[in-house]
Design brief:
The protein has helices at 18-24, 61-64, 125-132, 270-274, 277-282, and strands at residues 2-6, 9-13, 96-99, 119-122, 140-141, 154-159, 179-185, 189-192, 204-205, 210-216, 223-225, 258-268, 285-288, 294-306, 312-322. Strands 4, 5, 7, 9, 10, 13, 14 and 15 form an 8-stranded mixed β-sheet that branches. By secondary structure, the protein is mostly beta strands. It contains 5 helices and 15 strands. A hairpin with a 2-residue loop joins strand 1 and strand 2.
């Protein structure tokens, strides 16, 4: 939905998303709105000018005059930036989600012709065997659900990106994520628990084939607490990547108080493993590795959202299938 300002009158424009209409269409009287969220996707806060020559009335004028998005039904695109309510008004910093690539098992491809800066997923045993022949290439094994803590996986840490507060202290409970939401294209695959090697079941799949998983701390091995302690050298790294181990000995990357970490593997969907149809229809064509081996590729994005803070992170992923 959206608020539309029309000649001083506030008009509320609300439409149901595709998922909402589907639930309403049941016609059994169970549909009712129990929760709602606000967002500010269209607002650029850098437009605030605290030293405007015309005075304080003009500091936020450009922001107030920014056109507001009208309501639209695509739930996959709605509310990328959700507003939250916190009881503590004395907060100086808010937690973020960051990719942790310190450990050897959590690194993306760095300088590969197959897709630098992406998490590569080998979708079958044959592809994985060929990718293993490439020196220093990091990739996820998507052929089966057997992951394990010693196999490649994706790790996301939650906490404060500042050294103004000591990392010896834990993140405030009000700001600590106990549950995460993972969204990905269900046609391409699913997410796996790196501890139990079990494949998670999606909470629901929308009409765009986007699967949503609700991952809760204490249920499986997906979510665990980050370890407290100083991270050596991270204060000089603007991106907090590659800082190395610190006194915590936990491959931590955030220099401030930390909350929880989310860890998961990716299993390729049966459609990718048994057929080339999706590679041919939505794929990026053929890519070639340094050993002159060809692969079909599909690029996608996995979105991770913290339920408590609403902070989201998009993770670039490329599925690979050896062709020759």
């Amino acid at each position: 939905m959206a608020f539309l300002d029309n000649s001083g009158d506030i008009i509320l424009d609300a439409v149901l998303t595709d998922a909402g209409r589907k639930r309403l269409s049941r016609g059994d009287g169970t549909f009712k709105v129990t929760k709602y969220a606000f967002g500010d996707d269209e607002i650029n806060y850098e437009s605030y000018v605290p030293d405007h020559v015309s005075g304080s009335a003009y500091y936020d004028l450009e922001i107030l005059q920014t056109p507001v998005l009208e309501a639209f039904t695509n739930n996959a695109s709605s509310l990328k930036n959700k507003l939250i309510t916190l009881t503590n008004n004395n907060l100086l910093f808010l937690p973020q989600l960051v990719l942790n690539e310190v450990g050897d098992q959590t690194k993306r491809a760095v300088s590969s012709s197959l897709g630098a800066g992406q998490f590569l997923v080998g979708i079958n045993v044959e592809t994985q065997a060929t990718l293993t022949d490439i020196t220093n290439l990091k990739f996820l094994k998507g052929a089966n659900a057997t992951v394990g803590v010693d196999s490649p996986f994706i790790r996301i840490d939650q906490g404060l990106k500042t050294d103004k507060l000591s990392a010896v202290n834990s993140l405030a409970s009000e700001l600590t994520e106990q549950q995460y939401m993972i969204q990905m294209d269900n046609r391409l695959g699913g997410v796996t628990d790196i501890v139990s090697s079990q494949t998670a079941s999606p909470s629901f799949i929308d009409d765009d084939q986007i699967a949503t998983y609700y991952i809760t701390k204490g249920v499986g091995g997906f979510v665990a607490s980050c370890l407290p302690g100083q991270v050596d050298g991270a204060t000089t790294d603007a991106n907090f990547v590659g800082a190395g181990k610190g006194e915590d000995d936990g491959n931590e990357v955030l220099v401030g108080p930390r909350g929880t970490k989310l860890r998961f593997g990716i299993i390729a969907g049966s459609n990718l493993q048994s057929s080339d149809y999706l590679f041919d229809t939505i794929g990026q064509g053929t890519v070639t590795d340094t050993n002159a081996v060809n692969y079909k590729a599909i690029d996608t994005t996995i979105k991770v959202i913290g339920i408590t803070t609403g902070y989201s992170l998009d993770i670039p992923v490329r599925f690979l299938k050896k062709t020759s």
